[in-house]
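Quick review question:
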């Protein structure tokens, strides 16, 4: 079961300048930053609102750490913009299995580590009407899922 929009991933060339745009324009503050070497991103999470499932929704600003990463390749081709959407679920394994069973390509055999210790996987954009789609289970059951 998918219970919320966990985040919208936005690819940018310069994380600090993009963070400053979201702060100055909308008043959104950085909730968390980290580097995910496996994914090749440096990211800032801006918390937008808490959600009725005990989780939250974020904007995820993404700067590539290397040109051959998913975000690096995408930026070179498309420039800055919305890169993916992510749905939150209490059970990323079950959700991925169910969606795989419907014939949608799930990119990872097993979920990998995402922002703030979450477990994530992705669905191929070509099977999702052009939208790269991520599934997320947050790390902390007490603060995010129940
Ligand atoms: C590529 N395509 C996209 C796309 N990226 N379409 C929509 N949205 C995107 N973001 C299209 C692209 O235009 C091509 O279509 C086709 O897919 C193949 O793309 P490609 O450029 O040849 O690239 P690939 O095939 O090497 O890689 C595409 C995939 C890759 C989706 C497989 O980006 C991937 O593995 N993504 C999952 C990991 C990821 O995105 N990590 C960064 C975020 P045409 O031109 O052939 O029609 S990390 C994150 O979100 C974290 C850590 C978190 O949330 O916690
Ligand atoms: Co993401």
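Suggested answer, residue by residue:
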């Amino acid at each position: 079961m998918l219970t919320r929009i966990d985040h919208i991933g936005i690819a940018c060339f310069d994380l600090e300048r993009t963070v400053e745009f979201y702060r100055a324009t909308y008043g959104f503050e950085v909730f968390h930053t980290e580097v995910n070497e496996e994914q090749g991103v440096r990211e800032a999470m801006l918390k937008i609102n808490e959600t009725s499932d005990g989780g939250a929704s974020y904007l995820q600003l993404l700067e590539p750490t290397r040109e051959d990463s998913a975000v690096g390749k995408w930026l070179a081709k498309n420039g800055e913009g919305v890169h993916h959407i992510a749905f939150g679920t209490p059970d990323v394994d079950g959700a991925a299995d169910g969606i795989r069973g419907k014939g949608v390509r799930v990119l990872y055999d097993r979920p990998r580590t995402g922002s703030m210790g979450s477990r994530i996987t992705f669905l191929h954009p070509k099977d999702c009407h052009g939208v790269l789609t991520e599934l997320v289970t947050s790390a902390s059951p007490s603060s995010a899922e129940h």
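Why it works: Residues 15-26 form the longest helix (12 residues). The mean pLDDT is 96.
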